[in-house]
């Protein structure tokens, strides 16, 4: 009788510079630190403070989505690695974008403060305005490191930045800095990350304005920009409605429910997409059939795991909120039970998006987002009328389900083509 020999698992390969292990460790460390920071500060400061911070971060998210260049994804997906001159053009473009966003947010801070009932807390929006500038100043070699799948290096940078963010934020909140402590921590973390991209990653682009060489990335990146603009409506519509109509306290409850569900479900898939996108792209360049087999395995494993985890989270939602956040946050439990379903679908979408972009079908994700917009526009008015804020959550979940179905169809079609 022939013995069945199983392949031995190599510890060295599991912790090689390109191993997925580093993505998982990064996910565990970074998301763990983010969870500690927001949950602890949320318990100390309450829903209103978290809602005020959410408005400032919402303004940044809207501005960044409207101006998304898609250059990061274009560098990773491209057939050839960028030259040093091309990296300089990418850095020039991203720095200019970050500066313009920051100036725009500072100029609009009084208007945003009045529209979202921040009671004159201009400093929150002004602090948040520093984030796009710091991100733009970072070295674009970070995307080359992603392209080359040096996940160990990326993990080191991301964990260091998250640790500084968490430490500074918690210390300032404990000392009485209030809602500003969240944003000051984010600024400190982004500052360190930008410094580390220049200090530890090569080749370094020229630190001078360079515009030539950016043209080859525009064709691919325009689909990323289109997707970002559509996703702006999809990802921020519910928060804008809650913040505008109900104020910071209600937005804080909604945002914390969403963030907690995201931490427990979607963030793992989003972090894994850092590994999956360049990995799928590399497999597709060598053998498209191998890439199609790989996506099938990932989708099956993700679907089974997410379904089981969602059921557990829905069952323990109330005691978990009471234990972690306190009684003040219990009204958000019904929202959380809906949003875990939402985030589970979002996790599957993150895997599908990684594959479709890796094979060059970025427009499929734009089409999926457009489908989601149509579903949202049709269902949201009725859902809000019948169920209020929970109706918004269910409408968003329905739209995500339709988008996921479309991307799954395009993935299977590409696999069988």
Number of strands: 0
Low-confidence blocks of residues? 1-12
**Class computed from helices, strands and strand pairing:** mainly alpha
Indicate the overall shape. globular
Ends apart, CA distance between termini:
41 Å
Alpha carbon gyration radius: 21 Å
Mean pLDDT reading: 84
Characterize the biggest β-sheet. Answer: none
Report the order of strands and helices: HHHHHHHHHHHHHHHH
Secondary structure: helix percent: over 70%
Number of helices: 16
Strand content: under 5%
Q: How many separate domains make up the residues?
A: 2
Describe the protein.
The structure is a single chain. The protein has 417 residues and is mostly helical. The protein has two domains: 199 residues, no CATH class; 197 residues, no CATH class. α2 packs parallel to α9. The chain starts with 10 loop residues before the first helix and ends with a helix.
